[in-house]
Amino acid sequence: MKIALLAGDGIGPEIVAQAERVLLYFKQEGLKIELEPGLLGGCAVDATGKPFPEATRKLSVEADAILLGAVGGIQYDNLPREKRPEQGLLAIRKTLGLFANLRPIVLYPELVNASTLKPEIVTGLDILIVRELTGDIYFGKPRGIEYRDGQKVGFNTMIYSESEIRRIAHVAFQAARRRSGRLCSVDKMNVLECTQLWRDVVTETAQSYPDVTLSHMLVDNAAMQLVRNPKQFDVIVTGNMFGDILSDEASMLTGSIGMLPSASLDDRNRGLYEPIHGSAPDIAGKNIANPLATILSAAMMLRYSFNEETAASRIESAVQKTLKQGYRTEDIYETGLRRTGTVEMGDMVLANL
Amino acid sequence: MKIALLAGDGIGPEIVAQAERVLLYFKQEGLKIELEPGLLGGCAVDATGKPFPEATRKLSVEADAILLGAVGGIQYDNLPREKRPEQGLLAIRKTLGLFANLRPIVLYPELVNASTLKPEIVTGLDILIVRELTGDIYFGKPRGIEYRDGQKVGFNTMIYSESEIRRIAHVAFQAARRRSGRLCSVDKMNVLECTQLWRDVVTETAQSYPDVTLSHMLVDNAAMQLVRNPKQFDVIVTGNMFGDILSDEASMLTGSIGMLPSASLDDRNRGLYEPIHGSAPDIAGKNIANPLATILSAAMMLRYSFNEETAASRIESAVQKTLKQGYRTEDIYETGLRRTGTVEMGDMVLANL
Ligand SMILES: CC(C)[C@H](C(=O)O)[C@@H](O)C(=O)O
Ligand SMILES: CC(C)[C@H](C(=O)O)[C@@H](O)C(=O)O
């Protein structure tokens, strides 16, 4: 099995290096994997002029799974749109058909103080957000900026087809079935026809899952309810744009976005795995970034793409043990605990494996 | 000066009745106002078959300001789109050109416990969200659901012209000038061309306001930052769709959305004023709804549409005094304080005027 390692920009290389050590540990134990590095994002622009170069495309298409660090940096912000690092990310998602973005939002009991919310509101928080990732206004056409009646207008197209909605709905219903059996679909059907279709198709798909309880919520209300009472949710499914906003809001409820992994899967569970946090150029190269979200992303890879549930659980347990032992990177540090660098955090997880 | 009273559905009539008493108090004191009732939303559908009937259109166009309760109810959810109560709201906004939606998010010191966030995160919270209200994907065309290649697709158009962006930017810069001089514009320029134009035009408009510090933030990050550290914000300006989501998220930070008013203004400060909460049909007619957001909306009306700053401030002080005295409707009740009904809350505000 071939894994592409796309470290990316900013803290990307440091955090991917720690996850790589974890993967190599399992290789030593007999897991048949090959790791191959590639360029994506700003580093790819620097090296080749393109955020998603042909060599990376080839590597990604051949790989069984991809581990990504993070892309982006202010030095790229003024490049023309097609050369910005994010375009590399959007292109790899689209090229590989990674339509199912899974974002588990879990609050570790050891980190409950990191949240800005009261402990009773977030203790035990465990939500799975299923975000559609290759459709919606992200990719819809027509799009652009042009002159109309003597002035510029900017426009984008929010669009979903029945089949796009149906396949992400199936992923969400199946996830809900494996969890508590509750699924909440988020839309803005009272204003947008596109999301009226979303609601209709999700409702129709529910017929194949009589064991799952489906509810619907408007996106503005969902943004409120995540703050008011996040534990009411188990699995949430929504489109690309609303998913971008709600999953980031939800992740911040934990107060420790340095801990949150994600998976982006195609229809055969080939996937790209990445921490949900960004490239944090301000702390890059200082050995203070938190590698745990990337290590947990590697665990998701073993689970979803390689069906190695035992290895995945072992990584998750090792991370939890490391937290119990009091090791904390800067972002989750609390007085009295052990301030730990990026590499040392990797050491501890390996020691606990 | 003519004020249209559109009580709407659910708790609308009860809460508007209390705000009406406050307005009549100022009329007695010499303020030259005429109040005229009209139908909007579900009650209008029941009476006329339309959520925004011609009589209401006429009344609204003639009025100098409109006080709205709330619209909507589950009994209307299955009506065809054009007959749903929300369409009345969208139609009145568009017809009157109410492009500037002002949503102050204020945490009253007396209500700090109502928030799900830790007191140190929200104490003193005072944000103004300026949301564009007559453009964006809410009104963009083409839109609809149709068959393409043998399956249904749903689509909407996010669209802004330079002039639409410029006029809301001016409103926001002027508000920032009257407050702390800091404005944060929210977009998704890394993905959407429409919001790239948004960022360009807001940046250009900033040249006329050298005394205001402008920053930009991506919408997903804004959704996070509102949870992480909401007090970093003073004035936020954004489009209709992102504004819908972020303003609801922000309002919930206070834990007491029964307290939050809003104004929707045209280019001559004619406006529609309404509480940000909904029609809450489950508690309608029970004398337990909180009328304060509607009373505070009336205060905003006196300030923005009628330039009656003194009267507006007097209402706001009376509300604050009522809270200090310990009067609380159900939604903001805490043990030990005085549980108060809708009408009694109106009594107390009047007594404190
Ligand atoms: C970088 C950006 C294009 C991306 C997105 O909006 O999808 C990011 O915010 C994410 O959520 O992965
Ligand atoms: C009722 C609905 C159409 C409306 C909107 O989305 O604008 C509401 O959510 C609001 O924010 O006033």
TrEMBL record, chains A, B:
<dbReference type="InterPro" id="IPR019818">
    <property type="entry name" value="IsoCit/isopropylmalate_DH_CS"/>
</dbReference>
<keyword id="KW-0464">Manganese</keyword>
<dbReference type="InterPro" id="IPR024084">
    <property type="entry name" value="IsoPropMal-DH-like_dom"/>
</dbReference>
<keyword id="KW-0028">Amino-acid biosynthesis</keyword>
<keyword id="KW-0963">Cytoplasm</keyword>
<keyword id="KW-0479">Metal-binding</keyword>
<feature type="binding site">
    <location>
        <position position="244"/>
    </location>
    <ligand>
        <name>Mg(2+)</name>
    </ligand>
</feature>
<feature type="site" description="Important for catalysis">
    <location>
        <position position="138"/>
    </location>
</feature>
<feature type="domain" description="Isopropylmalate dehydrogenase-like">
    <location>
        <begin position="2"/>
        <end position="349"/>
    </location>
</feature>
<comment type="pathway">
    <text>Amino-acid biosynthesis; L-leucine biosynthesis; L-leucine from 3-methyl-2-oxobutanoate: step 3/4.</text>
</comment>
<feature type="binding site">
    <location>
        <position position="93"/>
    </location>
    <ligand>
        <name>substrate</name>
    </ligand>
</feature>
<feature type="binding site">
    <location>
        <position position="220"/>
    </location>
    <ligand>
        <name>substrate</name>
    </ligand>
</feature>
<keyword id="KW-0432">Leucine biosynthesis</keyword>
<dbReference type="Pfam" id="PF00180">
    <property type="entry name" value="Iso_dh"/>
</dbReference>
<feature type="site" description="Important for catalysis">
    <location>
        <position position="188"/>
    </location>
</feature>
<comment type="function">
    <text>Catalyzes the oxidation of 3-carboxy-2-hydroxy-4-methylpentanoate (3-isopropylmalate) to 3-carboxy-4-methyl-2-oxopentanoate. The product decarboxylates to 4-methyl-2 oxopentanoate.</text>
</comment>
<keyword id="KW-0520">NAD</keyword>
<comment type="subunit">
    <text>Homodimer.</text>
</comment>
<keyword id="KW-0560">Oxidoreductase</keyword>
<dbReference type="InterPro" id="IPR004429">
    <property type="entry name" value="Isopropylmalate_DH"/>
</dbReference>
<feature type="binding site">
    <location>
        <position position="220"/>
    </location>
    <ligand>
        <name>Mg(2+)</name>
    </ligand>
</feature>
<protein>
    <recommendedName>
        <fullName>3-isopropylmalate dehydrogenase</fullName>
        <ecNumber>1.1.1.85</ecNumber>
    </recommendedName>
</protein>
<comment type="similarity">
    <text>Belongs to the isocitrate and isopropylmalate dehydrogenases family. LeuB type 1 subfamily.</text>
</comment>
<feature type="binding site">
    <location>
        <position position="103"/>
    </location>
    <ligand>
        <name>substrate</name>
    </ligand>
</feature>
<feature type="binding site">
    <location>
        <begin position="278"/>
        <end position="290"/>
    </location>
    <ligand>
        <name>NAD(+)</name>
    </ligand>
</feature>
<keyword id="KW-0460">Magnesium</keyword>
<feature type="binding site">
    <location>
        <position position="131"/>
    </location>
    <ligand>
        <name>substrate</name>
    </ligand>
</feature>
<keyword id="KW-0100">Branched-chain amino acid biosynthesis</keyword>
<feature type="binding site">
    <location>
        <position position="248"/>
    </location>
    <ligand>
        <name>Mg(2+)</name>
    </ligand>
</feature>
